[in-house]
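Students often ask why we bother encoding 3D structure as a string. The short answer is that it lets us treat folding as translation between two languages. Here is a chain of 352 residues written in the first language.
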Amino acid sequence: MKGKYKKAVELLKELIFTPGVSGWEDPVRDLVRSKVKKYGRTEVDNLGNLTLTVGSGDKHALFTAHMDEIGLIVSHIEDNGYIRVRKVGGIDDRILAGRTVDIYPRVGEPPVPGVIGLKPPHLMKDRSAEMSRVVPVEDVFIDIGTRSAEQTEALGITKLCPVILRKHFSMLENDMVATRALDDRLGCAALIMALDGIDVSKLKHRVTFAWSVQEEMGLRGAQALGNMLRPDYAVAIDSCTTGDSPMVDYHLSAVEVGGGPVLRMLDRMAFASRVMMENVQRAAKAARIPTQVAVTSGATDGAAIQTVGAAMIALGVPVRYVHSPVEVMSLRDFSGLVRLVSVIAAKIGTWA
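And here it is in the second language, the structure alphabet:
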């Protein structure tokens, strides 16, 4: 791809096509670590969170983005070789049937391809009823071409192996991209790219960049980070659902793709700091970065870190069709988020 977004697209693709189901984030962590180790010492805690701290001073700010993605794990292997699965995170049953998947017997090794079988309409007893039914995950099976449990297990597939829904990456009009796992590889990429925009020698405070684990399983990594680091400020970087798509009432998440980065002030688990909001808005205005304010659902890492007393705000990019195979965002919004993170990281230690 040509143009000013080439670097962002290349990094996003690299992160998105690296598997990282909750609990199996190792490949994503290794990739992120290789990208940021030049900025300073990186550390990995017992849960698997990756951190990098720059600057020095009494005040401490924590920026987080989660590495994990929703997916499946192997829960059982049938005698005939078919594989049963369990959801990890908020997977919608509607997107499962008829999909191609990759099963990872071991981290870092090539996956075993498979398909989620779909009953053909030719064999349905009541076509109208069966075709209108969403197949629940409990009825889903993966076919990898084997004919016995022994054949399946011989490929290294066992219980708990992660399963990824096969991904694609499409460029749409108006500098938009469509892919799966923008939630939250966009946040991981934004933190990596923001480091280039910070003059560490001028920081009068500490800034820790963290790439967290198991956000989709209940903000587990962020909870550990908050308890260990006890930051003064917390900034969670994530996606944000948007109301500007068909079949969605706009008021449910009144932000739109292309309108700029989002200050995600209220969601299902947290009310962000209004003081932080005012400071971020002033910094964004001075840097000529358009922003939007979101009242939405869901949750971010910020909710967990807020509980240790940090002044918290969640920032993100508006994304259509979150938790689907075709999440859509604007590269202009993403670029604005990267700039905003750099600006905030440089100023945050001076905020009240």
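Translate back mentally: The chain has two domains: 6-69+180-350, 71-165. Keep this in mind for the problem set.
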